[in-house]
Amino acid sequence: MTEVYLRRLSRWQAEQQRDAVADVHVTAYRGAAGAEYRDRQSYLRRFEQHVQQPDFDMVVADAHGLAGCVHGFRVARSGDWWSDFRGDLPPDIEELTASGRTFLLAELMVLPGHRRQGVATRMAERLLARRGSDLVVASVNRPDANGHANVAARTLHAWGWTRLGEQGARTRPDAGPGTSPGPGAGAGRGPVAQEVWIRRPPR
């Protein structure tokens, strides 16, 4: 088994790696036949937006080439990300979002050959290690028509995250690992309602 090493990238390094990361995206979450170019360009547009966000942070997995990637950034309560959240936030979550202490887990991807080896877990832990006192959020696709949660939701549940609620149906350029393909979701090509999952700060 090839050993996998993790590296944290600066904003500048992340921009230099954009094409290699886009290659990982296409391989990890290949869409319908003939859609690879569209998916790649969509990811690159999202990445260009993400890398400019406050407190952007990124971790990659190396195994004789990139094997995976996770990145995120801080989101403000007054920003677009929360604008279509359905319902009221619990008081403690409202306080954290209002104070600007919310970090979005925006993208998470692992090549098929390196899955089920703990790579996604290790990358996410490394990325979020600096966010121990922050609320961490992600949005993922809702369960399918049969009520089956996607891999992203199952992964977050296994990590001890909790479901907070839903966001309205619209195209989300800054969505989370279930929409802008993360751990097991599709390529998010149209407006779809999302589930919001959170990891509360340790008490």
What keywords describe this structure?
alpha+beta; 7-stranded mixed β-sheet; 6 helices; globular
Summarize the helices and strands and which ones pair or pack:
Elements: E1 5-9, H1 11-16, H2 18-28, H3 36-50, E2 57-62, E3 66-75, H4 91-98, E4 102-110, H5 119-128, E5 135-141, H6 151-158, E6 162-170, E7 192-199
Helix pairs in contact: 2-3
Overall pLDDT score = 81
Low-confidence regions: 170-175, 178-190
Please work out how many helical segments DSSP would assign.
6
Please describe the biggest sheet, giving its number of strands, its sense, and whether it closes into a barrel. Answer: 7 strands, mixed
Query: Could you name the CATH topology?
Result: Aminopeptidase
The shape is: globular
Tally the structural domains. 1
- Gap between N and C termini, in Å? 38 Å
Structural class: alpha+beta
State the CATH architecture: 3-Layer(aba) Sandwich
Order the strands across the largest sheet as they lie in space. 1-2-3-4-5-7-6
**Beta content:** 25-35%
Find the count of extended strands (DSSP E, 2+ residues): 7
* Rounded radius of gyration (Å): 16 Å
- Percentage of helical residues? 25-40%
Order of helices and strands: EHHHEEHEHEHEE
Main CATH class: Alpha Beta
What's the gist of this structure?
By secondary structure, the chain is of the alpha+beta class.
Describe this protein's structure:
By secondary structure, this protein is an alpha+beta fold. The chain has a single domain, classed as Gcn5-related N-acetyltransferase (GNAT) (Aminopeptidase, 3-Layer(aba) Sandwich), CATH 3.40.630. It has six helices and seven strands, in the order βαααββαβαβαββ. The chain has helices at residues 11-16, 18-28, 36-50, 91-98, 119-128, 151-158; strands at 5-9, 57-62, 66-75, 102-110, 135-141, 162-170, 192-199. It has a seven-stranded mixed beta sheet, sandwiched between helices. α5 links the parallel β4 (102-110) and β5. α2 crosses α3. The protein is globular, with a radius of gyration of 16 Å. Mean pLDDT is 81; it is low at 170-175 and 178-190.
